[in-house]
């Protein structure tokens, strides 16, 4: 069960280029089974499955893997063709070199530059840098962020384990929704930098590619759209705590001291690490309850009172208040909109 939920701001990012191209965003949302309420409610969130479906719908409608956010189109199938070429490399260092060469053949709005070795004081680190070569139609910077996410998670998939990020740098100021970045990248974030890039340990460049052509073809049925929707699977303390808690939220959640013990840390050290990741144990618990609730409310499987129990509330009224605080909607209103769109799309 994929319980990640996606905030309003990223849904708007997906739709931004289509709107500028004259496509009705409500039509795209409806085709993905998402209520138009997400456009009106800044607290609205959608489940990851529908979000990935929306990305694919935008690509299909615009015939553009750049989602209408650039001055030129990237025809559907470009990423797949690059992947089939790059997988011939033995290591992800080779994948990155071939990918840079492949996209360098086209008139691209964003240039990808692979650096196998950074200069002092970053010895032992490598980077994948994005530089804007043409004006973008992307005031929210969604296009660049998406490219970073796709390339990071694609390379992690190729080697069968997470490429741990040292940091991510952005060449623009921190946005209002910066907290959402933490679940995407799970590493230190730096803004107002000279370039936008992911920085990681050089040792990962020698990790072997373990996927074959058959696995890649299966992967490409839903990706790279799914790469934008799935949670990051790495060693951040946020991700590790979510793993300790698990997905059964009906029982009492473990206390902070128990979680710290499971992570082999003192409570004081874990609090400090969470502050460094711009979160807290209470926020992690609330976000997990919210995401599991959204997952279940988007499906007809359980009545709302049962969902309240499933996410750890003994009183349905308390769950109603908490959910409205999280999303701006009551559970009933969220379910009604989600199921109506699901029925329309079937």
UniProtKB/TrEMBL annotation:
<dbReference type="Pfam" id="PF12625">
    <property type="entry name" value="Arabinose_bd"/>
</dbReference>
<dbReference type="Pfam" id="PF12833">
    <property type="entry name" value="HTH_18"/>
</dbReference>
<dbReference type="InterPro" id="IPR018060">
    <property type="entry name" value="HTH_AraC"/>
</dbReference>
<keyword id="KW-0238">DNA-binding</keyword>
<dbReference type="InterPro" id="IPR009057">
    <property type="entry name" value="Homeodomain-like_sf"/>
</dbReference>
<keyword id="KW-0804">Transcription</keyword>
<dbReference type="InterPro" id="IPR020449">
    <property type="entry name" value="Tscrpt_reg_AraC-type_HTH"/>
</dbReference>
<feature type="domain" description="HTH araC/xylS-type">
    <location>
        <begin position="239"/>
        <end position="337"/>
    </location>
</feature>
<protein>
    <submittedName>
        <fullName>AraC family transcriptional regulator</fullName>
    </submittedName>
</protein>
<dbReference type="InterPro" id="IPR032687">
    <property type="entry name" value="AraC-type_N"/>
</dbReference>
<keyword id="KW-0805">Transcription regulation</keyword>
